[in-house]
Amino acid sequence: MVKNLGASERHTLEKIKQIDKILRQRTGIKLTDTMAQRIKSGLEKISHNESEEEYLIRVLSSEFNSAQAKELIDLITVNETYFFRNESHFKIMEEEVIPRLVEEKIDSPQKMINVWSAGCSTGEEPYSLAMLLKDKLPFGYKFKIYATDINMSVLKKAQAGVYGKNSIRNSLIEEYTQYFNRLDQDKIEIKKEIKNHVIFMYLNLKENIFLFGLDLIFFRNVFIYFDEDMKKEIISKIKKALKPGGYLFLGTGEGSSILKDEELEFKYINGGSYWRKRQKK
User: Fold this and answer.
1) What is this structure's pTM?
2) Could you tell me if 98 and 137 are in contact, meaning their C-beta atoms sit under 8 angstroms apart?
3) What percent of the chain has pLDDT over 70?
4) Sequence spans of domains, the chain
5) pLDDT confidence of residue 45
6) How far apart are CA 214 and CA 248, in angstroms?
7) Using CA atoms, how far apart are residues 245 and 214, in angstroms rounded to an integer?
8) 38 — alpha (psi -120 to 50), left (phi > 0) or beta?
9) 73: buried, middle or exposed (CB in 10 Å: 19+, 13-18, 0-12)?
10) Which CATH architecture does the domain made up of 87-277 adopt?
11) What are the strands of the beta sheet with 187-190, ordered from one edge?
12) Which of 156, 158, 247 shows the shortest CA–CA distance to 194?
């Protein structure tokens, strides 16, 4: 795990290794060196009046509860994101995926498109998708985006829908100014008409995924938290949630685990890639 620790830190390191074991059992998340360092440096902030060892022992005890788990999850999950991140995916959506979904659902009475944004963090990804779909879908078509994360703090921020300079650094967002209010030069608030299309929910990927019949899944920059066994478990869940013919987008370099999957067909277009679940014969 963490290298070059002094003798006085070995006890804490052993406790962090125990946290690694518990996190894998309960969330599937593997504790990397970087995460372990982040926990160690953050313990002083969250352990309150306890010593590091006392706090770790409490977290590892049978009283491990959601509040304590939340503190650890806040420490180890990275929430770096911004609107229209990896722009090529949104270009593929506009030019390839949305037209196909429109055609596929033209005879459907509901014309409903169901989307899952996994590991949605503070909400920039699902709101980007909502703005794109709202703007490009023909009249009469509906959509709902289920945005999930294991970090409760970021979900609260996402529901508020207020964003600063770092989140709006991609100039593509300026094409969708009708969907947000500008609070000042470097801050925006997402309008209610976009918020109404997004449902934010807590989801631990180690547990059962309650979503199914999905037309589109954005599962980007999530696999980085898991080992190969957990990745295989998640891929199986994704395939069950995705309807035949449905679309899957992963983060850059995250597709190696499913390149040879017989149920998912790899597509490369417009400088980006996606997968499509094969139709049943």
Assistant:
1) 0.89
2) yes
3) 85
4) 7-76, 87-277
5) 65
6) 10
7) 10
8) alpha
9) buried
10) 3-Layer(aba) Sandwich (3.40)
11) 162-163, 187-190, 180-184
12) 158
